[in-house]
Amino acid sequence: MSTAARSLFSYRPYWARRFGTAPVLPMSRAEMDRLGWDSCDVVLVTGDAYVDHPSFGMAVIGRVLEAQGFRVGIIAQPDWTSVEPFRELGRPNLFFGVTAGNMDSMVNRYTADRKIRSDDAYTPGGKGGSRPDRSVLAYAQRCRQAWPEVPLILGGIEASLRRVAHYDYWSDKVRRSVLLDAKADLLVYGNGERQIVEIANRLAAGETPEQITDVRGTAFMLAEPRPQWTEIDSRDIDRPGPLTPPPDPYAAQTPATCAQTAPAGGETQVVLAPRVRPDRQRSVVRMPAYEALRDDPVLYAHASRVLHLETNPGNARALVQRHGARDLWLNPPPLPLTTRELDRVFELPYTRLPHPAYGAERIPAYEMIRFSVNIMRGCFGGCTFCSITEHEGRIIQSRSEDSIVREIEAIRDSTPGFTGVISDVGGPTANMYRLACKSPKIEAACRRPSCVYPGICSNLNTDHTPLVRLYRRVRELPGIKKVLVASGLRYDLAVKSPEYVKELVTHHVGGYLKIAPEHTEPGPLAKMMKPGMGAYDEFKQLFDKFSRQAGKEQYLIPYFIAAHPGTTDEDMMNLALWLKRNGFRADQVQTFLPSPMSTATAMYFSGHNPLRRIRRDGETLPVPRGLKVRRLHKAFLRYHDADNWPLLRTALKRMGRADLIGNGKRHLVPTWQPAGSGGAAKKAPRGRPFRTQHTGLPTLPGKRRQAARNGDGRRR
């Protein structure tokens, strides 16, 4: 598999480029007629409303294909109970592209407790129920019914995270790769620009999907083994390092591993034959078959470990996994886009608005990002519960300063309702802009799952100077009153640059800053691959210091996760005590949700730790799996809610910590119960009213104080 990437915009334009650029990609035959199109070359089906903005995946893919000269139509949130909406734009000349949207459809619709959400931020009016469960499967089925002979390609985060056999939290079982269940021809995983452009051009040149088996970042099915490929058993890959160990000089020799020569003295001399290291470009790692790991949690944990070891585009090998009578092939990840390529992707002719068909209806996800700017992609944090690395990769892809400035100017000049405030300059992580390994050679060979755990790698460049320079430049633009940073901040990196923290705190915090320690206890933090609270304390000191110097009253709002694998009841109790000591009350909290393919999900399903070598008699984890224990862990995070006090009292007594029940400041929950709350109503003792703990937010105006207490526990 080639490690050199063809430039994204170097292909010869398709003949349909003569039609020019569409003001907005069409969603109806009437729009196609106005553009003079008799057909679409590509039809993209998405579970999101169509917003022509670079934060929406289908808009990006559509505009990238349009830049290659292809005519692209959009079918957004179709009625999946009928085949007719999938025939609306006619038969695509090249292929259907299917995605669930910017979120996995199951994560979008269900809470961590498997309750149906009442809203959908990617739907006009925020109404729920506008997309089916497992949207990729439903849409793919209808595409096949509408035009059976048209190639079908899956993409987006739902397909990306379900590209191999995976544990599915909602059905509580291991499911096959979505590629099989959707009966699609190809699956594109990760950021899909490189893959989809190459596939479109090759299909346009007359190739069939069956011939397209060498594109990075794709998965496909084969019935027969591929000749001239070296197959490696995944059990030979149990830790980072050389694939083949040096030969053991004490091992028994066989004719297959040694040669015998007879010197002049007549004695037979044994000469060891050197082992040949397989060509990585022609090596494929065979993971356990779907049928094997479906019923064996230990094998599942092993497969997860192997998958995550093969994620660096610089050294990843292809993976193969048996499903029934056929093999699922997974090519190595796509090569990251260069800064020049990323700039062009973000500067394609987006309208930056929802499609006119939606009229004045609000789309909450658009409202959230319409005044924000994405400056980079990827994350090298490797947090085990997060899907960013599995989807976008761990190599940071950054835009140029000039491109970012041009986008901010476009927002200022053309986005309706702009008041001069840029709501966010960030990305998956706010402060990884232009951070990378100091050595491209080391980066290409590295197999660590994280560049910052258990500590920051000595080869990682942590210089925040380019980001500080960017902040200073964008806030000086005419017509820009304020530039905020709302993306998640990696504070263990930030403390390496006090100048950056000062710049951030002085100019780019809107009263409070959300960060995510996720826990306080070493056990859960190790399973999350998150830094200890020492880094949080160091950052808080800098934050408070520079806030005082700026004459501003600003606050940190930490986020925490309940019921993460590796967390005990005692861990959650200690976290609750930390929250009370520090005056934090969270009204919306995050309970761990096992998303497909993440390392933490493998922990949840298997009870083993894939961050270490998997053995049947190896390390096992406490896993808060049942609804009862998950509710308890969530109740610890909301220790201040009277409805949780009966549950917490019972748990504390069971844990031998009844000393934490009482009406003093050192107690976690009081002995009395307010009327109307959970449990039997009791009056507070006369003369000793229960006092709520000081929140640490005494002088914020009412609405902002409430927002600071509440936060928003829903991550995307």
How does this structure look, described?
- By secondary structure, the protein is an alpha/beta fold.
- The protein has a domain at 15-214: Cobalamin-binding domain (Rossmann fold, 3-Layer(aba) Sandwich).
- It is built from 24 helices and 25 strands.
- Strand 6 and strand 7 form a beta hairpin.
- Helix 2 packs across helix 7 (193-204), helix 9 (297-309) runs antiparallel to helix 21 and helix 20 (569-581) runs parallel beside helix 22 (627-637).
- The two termini are 32 Å apart.
Task: For this entry, give a set of tags.
716 residues
The proportion of residues forming helix, as a percent range, comes to: 25-40%
Please tally the β strands and state the result.
25
Overall mean pLDDT: 89
Strand content: 5-15%
Quaternary structure of the protein: single chain
SSE class: alpha/beta
Radius of gyration: 27 Å
Per DSSP, the total helix count is 24
CATH class of the domain at 15-214: Alpha Beta
- Which strand order do you get reading across the main beta sheet? 3-1-4-5-8-9-15-14-13-10
Q: Termini distance?
A: 32 Å
Let me know the CATH homologous superfamily of the domain at 15-214.
Cobalamin-binding domain
Task: Characterize the overall form.
Answer: globular
Low-pLDDT regions: 239-275, 680-716
